[in-house]
Amino acid sequence: MKKPVLIILIFTLSFMLTGCNFIEEQKAEGIIKDYYQAIIDEDYEKAFEQLQLYDYDAETGDGHFTEGTTLSHEEAKAFYLKKINVLKEQNYKLKGFEIIEVE
Hints:
4% strand
């Protein structure tokens, strides 16, 4: 009687641990695909909406990944589109992508 309960417990625990990550990884992969496809389609408004922006200090290496950015939505969008325009001026164009791993 103990053996089947133990096997079910181990199976349930392992499924819970891997299943939770799997769902989140699938969500993240969907967002990544939407972002890069929007870049390929040159729909930069849609691409911007897929981003989760955060403040980063290049000098110190500090990044506030979970706290977001201090910029307003409009300021962040203007900054993003400015960077896109710089890439367009350099004739940069994304033609394809491949997702190797999502963490």
